Amino acid sequence: MALAASGGPASGNFAEIIQELNVMLSINAGPFALALTHLLLLIALVTATLIEARFVRRVHAKKTAVFSLFILGVVAARIAFVLTYFTQYSDAPWKALDIRDGGFLVWPGIAAAILGGLLIGWRHPEQRRALAFSMTAGLAIWLLGGWLLSSYQQGAPLPQTTLRTLHGEPVSVAEYRGKPVVINLWATWCPPCRREMPVLRDMQLEREDIVFVFVNQAESAQAVSDYLSRQQLVLSNSFLDPEGEFAREVGSAALPTTLFYSSDGHLTGSHMGEMSRASLTHYLDSQTGARSAVSGTSSHRD
């Protein structure tokens, strides 16, 4: 979820303060990594569930509904996404069931959950107060938290960390300012990275108006070259981050991580985890908003 702040003087000052902070996109919890957006959703759900449980105990109701409404919202958000991008699933319709790509449309999901809550409240008057307070609290935490998180993450400039080409030459992604930039952090040992690579490769070939950059994490040039050769993957802008400094600068704690930057070099969105063609198309349409070619220097480098 990404909520844009207004462009007044106060929000401008707030954005400048936020950009002074180190951006963090995900956190580690032992062997697991969790995107901050997912953590926020979990906090909102737990809060709503606890509030509902408190009200239910007071009125001695027998049923709770918040979790069911959450599932309803998730399903509706997924269905809305699949219907919007159904052409992307035509070759493999079963992939519409794979929600790991993060393909959801937020507002249809919220609308479905609210309508479901209204229906339950109409049929079970004793649950109205519990649903009203719990859903209001959960949505408030999620929407307000989403706005704050968006303000915290978005607007960060293109990273300044120097990368290396597969031939050992230094390079900076800042040189691609002038076009929208998509940066994918990956590794050859990462299964979801390997699965999504053909999707990113194909999109790089199709969308010449956008610069795609592939930043391998802490592997040798030989290992990366051998892997790309075995998989018959030809990628432009394939670079190395030998010490993981680039990942630390952008705040990524897990792979794969994909970052979206505007043509003026500021972060507009991020995604942790595997991307499908549909979810990548959604991000490009909603985050970069760029479909026409932009004149400038070549955006490809070996």
From TrEMBL:
A molecular function annotated in GO for this UniProt entry is:
phosphatidylglycerol-prolipoprotein diacylglyceryl transferase activity
Fetch the CDD domains from UniProt.
TlpA_like_family
Q: Where is it predominantly found?
A: other
List keywords of the entry alphabetically: Cytochrome c-type biogenesis, Disulfide bond, Membrane, Redox-active center, Transmembrane, Transmembrane helix
Q: What is this protein called?
A: Thioredoxin domain-containing protein
Q: Pfam families recorded for this chain? A: LGT, Redoxin
Report the residue ranges that make up the Thioredoxin domain in this protein: 152-289
List the GO terms this entry assigns under cellular component, sorted alphabetically.
Answer: cell envelope; plasma membrane
Q: Tell me the Gene Ontology biological-process terms attached to this UniProt entry.
A: cytochrome complex assembly; lipoprotein biosynthetic process
Transmembrane segments in this chain: where? 32-53, 65-85, 105-123, 130-149
